[in-house]
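Changelog note: in this version the structure field was regenerated for every chain. One regenerated record is shown below for reference.
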Amino acid sequence: MDTRAPLADAHHSQHRAGGERLEVAASVLALLADRTRLALLERLGRGEADVTTLVEATGAARPSVSQHLAKLRLAGLVASRKDGRHVVYSLRHGHLRRLVDEALNVADHQIGSLPPHD
């Protein structure tokens, strides 16, 4: 019996999964590469908020905020729930909050010419 075939299949499967993983990560980062969406995620990282609060936090027009929230919700990055007549948004998981925080930390380092560190 040739044991190389299952190993080759496992390697091919991992490579394919790794490619899918990279593709999904690239899609998430592409969604973050918009100032308004990044501002929305940064605000939601501090807790739930409705559209009015998010409009105030971002300075963007209400229709724009709603469209960006729809994209983030469809991508599975934010969740929404009804609270009476309001829709309240939140981040789906802490990984996203930490990712946004780290991107903003990198920006702080570049703006402030801070030394690199781990």
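Spot check on this record: The longest strand covers residues 78-83. DSSP finds five helices and three strands in the chain.
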